[in-house]
Amino acid sequence: MLWPQVIDEVAPIPVLAAGGIGNGRQMAAALAMGAAGVWTGSLWLAVEEAAASPAQIDSYMKATSRDTVRSRSWTGKPCRMLRNDWTEAWDRADSPDTLGMPLQMMAVREAMVRSNRYPEKSQAVAFNPVGQIVGTMNKVKRSADVLLGMVEECVEAIERGNSFLEVE
Ligand SMILES: Cc1cc2nc3c(=O)[nH]c(=O)nc-3n(C[C@H](O)[C@H](O)[C@H](O)COP(=O)(O)O)c2cc1C
Question: Whose CA is nearest to atom 14 of ligand 1?
């Protein structure tokens, strides 16, 4: 975890820790390492207010942390997403190399438009970007409840840490 190095390097500029943060214990860990706060992304892909289709949300709900892969097959840059027939096909030894950004996206744009239009039929080849915390995204909740749950768990984790300092 390189957060402490980054935080020391840019001090006193405040740093938000990001990447793989999906619960309050991870948030507490980031704060303990000196982060001023946390920045989350994947967590919000499958909340009640998310713009994702029901089929895509279902894919996120079913996925484990082992079901993601870093692939250049949509954007041309490495991006973590759910592994499916599309990512496997681009990974095959006899498949062409991906193009750079933005050429790859231009090449596959039509596939993206069509899979977005028919999400319930296209999950096997759809672009489902998400981090490894997808394995802990198992229930569609309201954003407010996700946030509240995180803060409560963070407080509990900090209190547990404080309890190590108590002397009898
Ligand atoms: C669907 C999606 C799209 C994103 N798009 C961008 C982007 O265009 N530019 C960028 O710098 N980061 C982008 N991010 C990264 C997030 O801002 C954030 O740093 C990252 O998701 C944090 O890691 P986490 O997903 O494990 O919480 C994106 C993340 C997701 C999940």
Answer: 41
